[in-house]
Amino acid sequence: MNHNLFATFERRMTERGDAPFITTREGRDYRYSDALEAVARLAGALVALGVGPGDRVAVQVDKSPEAILLYLASLKVGGVYLPLNTGYTSEEIRYFLGDAEPALFICRPDSLAAAREVAASCGGARVESLGTAADGSLMEEAQAATPVNDVLERGPDDLAAILYTSGTTGRSKGAMLSHRNLGSNAESLVEAWRFSEHDRLIHALPIFHTHGLFVACNVILMAGASMRFLAKFDPDVIFEEMAEGTTMMGVPTFYTRLLKDPRLTREATARMRLFTSGSAPLTAETHEAFEAATGHAILERYGMTETNMNTSNPYDGDRVAGTVGMPLPGVEVRITDREGGDHTPLPQGEIGMLEVRGPNVFQGYWRMPEKTAEELLEDGFFITGDLAQIDERGYVQIVGRDKDLVISGGYNVYPKEVEGHIDEMDGVVESAVIGLPHPDLGEGVTAVVVPAEGASPQEADVIAALSDKLARYKQPKRVFFVDSLPRNTMGKVQKNVLRDTYSEIYKK
């Protein structure tokens, strides 16, 4: 049996024939039959460009239907798809290309020359371009290529994708996801969220992230549904699209922005059947306000780069504010004593480390066997780094994070990476980066800096110095200066004290 995820998608796509798959506001539409033809041509281009089974295909492009077709083409030929955040700087891209050693790097058309220069300095990957209007050198290659009609044989544990997630030391880790990891999760979500070919998803998420790519697009493909592909989240556009849509997958920021708009009513959302939220915690306040305004209870779920989705509030039944629901079919969760180190499950109701096991759990970190061994246990459980408890009904509540992680606008930011860049600046002794409650982003990245004696760095200077070193979402929203950082008796910086001190700054 061929376990290639595209083999499953292809069967469903063939069944759907001329049914709509992707439509855009600009009037560029793909029926399923169109998509199959385009994927075959793109697969031909990948083969012609030297992509073979197991080769990485790194992609940093703006959102477009063709980017999704490229992902499918990579699956079809046995490539390993590696999407990269469009906000990454050249310095960051250099690390990813050097670490992943892709056979091919696809960039924006206007970045082609710079991308080729970067690629040449770190392994010499072939570089082509893809634009938002079906343009770029890759599309030219596809037009000239011989279509690939056969789907390459893949095993269940063969890699389908690598997604980089920030590491606690600042070094990004490549989470290796197999065909089974992605396929099993999509099947579970179709069932859990009652997706069918009649659904029309309002897709306003980025597609370099688990949420927008593997949750949204894979679910649509598995169900044979359609999606309205939006370049970004825009409330004006969302309200227009809800007249024809049936579902929307969002992050908390989407819902906080909609709640500020008087157009958010029961009438405006009458045709919608489901709103889901993830990538960052949804506050009970937002959940309750949205339900009061629309009659819809947002369905919150919990996942991460290494596992895709683990838990979900029920489609039928209580969607409990402040919880992420119960394990999806085939997924096991346990709460263990993080201090004990023996991973023994704690009694129901106690707070501890959340660990998950199932066909959704990744294969390990790319070229990091020691890190893999630390977080992926021999019994198959993955240590999430999140602290949680499970109530008497089986609902999981995330109560905090064991790792020093900030989630801003749905994106993971590890303070160590940001601190490393700040500490290298002239006139800086040390820094501490924290996440603080933010009405729009969930958490705002915030830096607290100790200047060197006689130095007087300015907030604007620190932020400007980071602009070409870090993706925008990683850059501090505010910078504060102090004589010294608070420390405990062991010398560890007390970030909890800093969070308390500056907790109100984004509420003003």
Please provide a written account of the structure.
- It contains 15 helices and 24 strands.
- The chain has 508 residues and is an alpha/beta fold.
- A nine-stranded mixed sheet has the order 2-1-10-9-11-12-13-14-15. A four-stranded parallel sheet has the order 4-3-5-6, sandwiched between helices. The protein has a four-stranded antiparallel sheet with strand order 16-17-18-19, with no helix packed on it.
- Strand 1 (20-24) and strand 2 (30-31) form a beta hairpin.
- Helix 1 (5-16) packs antiparallel against helix 2 and helix 1 crosses helix 8.
- The longest helix is centred in the first third of the chain and has 17 residues, at 32-48.
- It is globular.
- The N and C termini lie far apart (59 Å).
- The model has no long low-confidence stretch (mean pLDDT 94).
> Termini separation (Å)?
59 Å
Give the low-confidence spans.
Answer: none
Rg measurement, Å: 23 Å
User: How are the strands ordered across the major sheet?
Assistant: 2-1-10-9-11-12-13-14-15
From the spread of the alpha carbons, the general shape counts as globular
* Helix percentage: 25-40%
| Total helical elements | 15
In what range is the share of β-strand residues?
A: 15-25%
Biggest beta sheet summary = 9 strands, mixed
Number of DSSP strand runs:
24
**Structural class from helices and strands?**
alpha/beta
Mean pLDDT: 94
